[in-house]
Structures are given as structure tokens and as C-alpha cells.
Amino acid sequence: MKKLSLIFCALIFSVISAYADGTETLCFSGKMGGKISVIIAFDYHIDNEERPSGYIYYPNAKNPAPILIVGNYMEEDNAFFFNEYQPDGTISGTLFFKVDGFEYADGPYIAEGEWKNPKTGKSFSLKNMHSYNYYHGISYAPDWFDHPIYKHADPAHIGKRYSYKTWHSGQNDYMGGHVSFRGAGKNKIHFDICNVPNNIAEGKSDPNRPAILQGNYFKYNNVNECGYGFECRIYEKYLVITSTTDPNTFDCFGAFTTFEAVYIKVED
Questions:
Q1: How far apart are CA 54 and CA 267, in angstroms?
Q2: Do residues 28 and 39 lie in contact, with contact meaning Cβ atoms separated by under 8 Å?
Q3: What is the pLDDT of residues 2-30, one digit of tens each?
Q4: At a CB cut-off of 8 Å and minimum separation 6, what does 17 contact?
Q5: Which of 260, 121, 243 is nearest to 198 (CA)?
Q6: How far is Cα 230 from Cα 250, in angstroms, rounded to an integer?
Q7: Which of 230, 263, 224 has the alpha carbon at shortest distance from 246?
Q8: Three-state DSSP state, 123
């Protein structure tokens, strides 16, 4: 009885912790287009303070393995948009879906949505996908789910290179960007960034002004003569760059191109 009580307390503590930091886990299973078995598991912040992230898993694939997904949460519609990233940063799929039924006893479900291959345009519907292992208000994700949103990069072991590639139909080729880091002292790093989703945005830290890490986060202003600034959050498997200055600071890059993107770690 004492052992059961300890287990119950541990479960309660995990739920309280999840609500305390505003992050919740959702997990769904079903068939894309009524054909392809799939499990989608991810964490998201209910106040949108961090991008949702997790994995999509195809159990019947030849070599099944969780594939990283990172995206955005649209709170007003309970809608999620994710990119599916291969280990080299290639975006191999996009997902958009709306979630409903949060008040249901058997958990929320994906009401409507779509998975799409950005290169071929092939798509599969996402609907009638129900909560996976949902019990008493908690989504119990599969054993392979390791909550990438909680895995912050160690400031002493930031990856050397991060990258992503997305299909550009106009160029009929992949385009994307990369971020390179090198050490500049304790909790200090120099960066070199090039992002080419359409036009070119590139810049680097000043020789005498490295970025200063606060945990897995840094903010950097005045990258170029237009005064562009951004913030960067670095996780174990990826990083997220968000612009922090007004659109008029994008002009130096042209066509409103910025550093903004999710970059996957490709070199330790």
C-alpha cells in the first residue's frame, strides 16, 4: 500500500509540475488518410512562451524511428502547425491540425488536419485521431518520447552547427539556412548565420562582442547597419531564432528576410 501511495504521489507531482510551468503533453494515434498508422506526441506551452515540439512516429515503416517535429500553436483555434525534420535538417513533411474535445473523458482528439510532403505535394488527411494512453486527464506518451522541449542545451556544450532545408518550388530545389557557433569564453559564443528561405539574410557576431548565454538563451542586437536584433533558444536537438526588432530593421537583408527559423543540430 505504501508503494502504491508513493507512485500515486509521483503521478500527482508530475501533473502539478506540468501545469505549473504551463507545458502540457498531447499524444494522438490513428491513420493518416485512413491508411498510414501514425503516432504524434508533443509538448506545448499553453501561453505560447515556447514553440511546441515532439515527434511523429510511423510504427509500420521499414525502419521505424521518432522524427522530430517543431512548430507553432494558435491558441484561439486550438490549432497546431509543425514541420517534420530529418536529422540533416531537411523538412520532409508539414502538419496542420485542430484539436478538440479537451473536456472529453477519453481525452482530446484531432478534429481535422493534413500532413503534406512539401516537395511532391502529396498529402494525407489527419482526422479521427484519438488520444493515446489517456487516463484520468493525463496523456501518457510512448516510452520513446523524451520531451525535447525540456532538453535545454548545456552552455558548455553548444553544438557547432545547426541547419535546415525546405523545398522551394520556384527554385525547384531545397533552400534553407545554417548557424555556426564557436566558443569565446565561459558562457560566451560567436555566431555566423546565413538564412536563405527566399532572399539572403546573413550576419555574424562582432569580433569584440560575442553573444552571452543565459542558460540556453541569448539575445543579440545591432547585427547590421539597420539595427536588426534577435533572440535564440538552444535545445539539445535544435534551436529557435526569433526576431526582436521592428520590420524596418529587416531592410538590410531585403525582401523582409530574417534569421527566423528552426535549425536542427547537425554537428556537435
A1: 20
A2: yes
A3: 443 333 333 333 333 343 478 899 999 99
A4: none
A5: 260
A6: 11
A7: 230
A8: strand
